[in-house]
Write a structure and sequence with these properties.
Length: 198
């Protein structure tokens, strides 16, 4: 049965929040604020926050900078996952993925379908991993951010969640690299991932 195993220790992880928008600033970024509140409410650390324009190169550059940062375990992005001409977040994520976590987008759309019906096909929410960092791109509405966090991420980013979770896999995300390349110290707050030397 899936659920929290109280005999296991909670391990906080460091999460960066990226909002993709041509119009929002920190004061009007309700989706980013929703994520930060949920991250911190669950006992994790919202370690970085940024807003970038709906521009593939800008999104990709921010992702690469945060992937290279040994203190960041997870990046959550909100916005730019639709199908209009300026929606390029999934393309930027695809450019940096080493592995896609296809089940994230599939599960998100299944959850979303229960609430908005077939309109969920307009969401290209996606997840993956690169450089030992988990990456998730969510739609730009606060409701979609709540759904993704409350129904999926709060569980998978909790080391106590059984039968398995993403946190317990963090030390193994770089196991394909030579030991010297994956020898960066693990962030004290998260006890999570070794990252490749810059």
């Amino acid at each position: 049965m899936a659920g929290i195993d109280e005999t296991r220790r909670f391990l906080p992880v460091n999460i960066a929040v990226l909002t993709v928008s041509d119009t929002r600033d920190l004061a009007s970024d309700k989706s980013g604020t929703t994520l930060v509140e949920r991250i911190e409410g669950a006992g994790h650390t919202a370690i970085k926050r940024a807003i970038v324009k709906d521009d593939k190169a800008s999104i990709e550059a921010q992702l690469r900078a945060w992937i290279a940062d040994p203190e960041i375990d997870v990046v959550l992005a909100t916005g730019g996952t639709g199908v209009t001409g300026r929606d390029v977040t999934p393309e930027a994520f695809d450019a940096v993925y080493e592995k896609e976590i296809t089940g994230f987008g599939e599960l998100f759309r299944w959850i979303s379908y229960q609430k908005i019906g077939t309109s969920t096909i307009q969401s290209r929410a996606t997840g993956g991993v690169a450089g030992g960092t988990y990456l998730f791109a969510l739609p730009g509405s606060p409701g979609a951010c709540r759904d993704a966090w409350d129904e999926i991420l709060v569980h998978q980013l909790d080391a106590r969640f059984r039968p398995c979770n993403l946190v317990e896999l963090m030390p193994r995300l770089q196991e394909h690299l030579p030991a010297a390349s994956a020898a960066k110290p693990v962030p004290a707050a998260s006890a999570a991932k070794p990252k490749p030397a810059a």
